[in-house]
Amino acid sequence: MQNSPVHWYITAPQHCPYVEGREMQTVLVDPAASLEDHHYGRLLAEGFRRSGQFVYRHQCPSCRACVPVRIPVDAFQPNRAQRRCLRRNADLALRIVTEPNLDEHVELLRRYLAARHPGGGMEHTTRTDYLGMLSDRNCGVLLLEFRRGPRLLAVAVTDHTPQALSAMYTFFDPDVPDRSLGTLAILHQIQEARRQGRAHLYLGYWIPDSEKMAYKTRFQPVEGRVTGTWRRLPRQ
To answer: Tens of pLDDT along 8-30?
Structure first.
């Protein structure tokens, strides 16, 4: 980003968690800097994303496997499976909140991590850890809650900038896999971006050889930033 008001850092090479046998390096925006939301929006367009208080982009010397992806929301049309997901979850209520019940959110997050990412080191996430995830130092944060009656089933932590929304992190009840709550969250984030007049919903990184990331190209059309240029990606 030209005329940057902040410092940049790059990590030492470390084991890549995505591609076996490779090393990863990451460019970080100075964690002490507070970016204006339009600056963060520009960084999203340059392939950066946020994880808690860190704004970063993978920049590995010998690998370009991580492809930033985004959905042009006005062009998106749900496919048959996604329409079924919406119908299957028509009994859920969606609410956008700014002051969540932190204990309720953290309990659901811990259950999700224990079931979906066991041994990842985050199963004991605290209220402080979760508040770090919600840090609005660089942008505004929307929390999309999905409930069946009083029961909280899913939360989509969503960054918003003047240009776009970004799906920062979604967690959900692991006991109801048939509801496809991760897909549901993205569908509603697309709707919310469209309602706000935002051009894109960013989905973070996609790796062609990663089965776990294949779902991202099922939201068509989807764009990937390849060699510095955004272009349409085929469904994998």
So the answer is: 899 999 998 888 888 899 999 98
